[in-house]
Amino acid sequence: PIKQRRRGHTGAQLLVGLAAAQLAGEDFLVGLDRQRADQAGQALVPVPDLAATTAAGESGLGDVHTAALDMLTAVAPARAAALADSVTIDLDTTSNATVDLTGTTGGETLYNYGILSNTGPYTVNVSTTSGDITVENDYGILAYGGTTPASTYGINANSYSGAVSVDNTAGAYIVVYNSFGSGYGIAAYSQQGDVDVSNDGSIYVSPSGNAYGIYATSDDGVTHVYNTGSIIAAGGNNATGIYAQSYANVYVDNSGYVQASTANGTAYGVFIYTCDCTALDANVDNSGTIVATN
Questions:
Q1: Phi, psi of 208 (to 5 degrees)
Q2: Are strands 107-112 and 211-218 parallel, antiparallel or unpaired?
Q3: Which of 6, 25, 119, 183 qualifies as a FRET site for 155, CA 20 to 30 Å off?
């Protein structure tokens, strides 16, 4: 007999497995692992042995989620509507995985407890036309960039009308390298809502182009950046530890360490910008260390 290597689950099996897990009451990817551990229950599910790492490793996770909701709508419309209203992903995986949630209209919440790494433009990319966004990193995010000129992001979160909140918690880290363009540790944007970015862990960004540890912007909302951890931006061109912008109020609170360095351009430890309006605030409150060298 010829030995045949097991090929794993197909994309179609993944969709069916996710729909079955949602019908069973699971809201997070780790629920797949809980179901997999139930040996008796595995005999009843349509796709047995489906693991969270398999689901996380599939490219275009947002499209997979949407397709699974479409299938769920046919058999359980109320359940599908509840999930579509506000999506929460609880990710616990250690693999080359990219989380991409784009084009949705509801709120998005992402918690990462594993290590995410990617060699493309984004390791975590969350984008909505409406609804709030919350991203929390509790472990590790690695972004290595690609082989063609493009910016690279550890976390990129943007919403048209909702508030955007990104938190890199204590002990967590974000590392960004890029040999073919600029690099962003955290980029957060909202056109109409407030933007809050907090770093209690560590962020290290070292691209060939411009380097931004945190890049937080809002057109009409308040932008607020908090840092108690460590931010290092080392750019081949310009380097900025914290960039904060809004046409409303802008606040930066630093009690940690911020370093920006470059040999070829201009280095800014903290750079804030707002319109030339006397009624608006642009404040930096620093009780930590800010270093800029070039």
A1: -80, -25
A2: unpaired
A3: 25
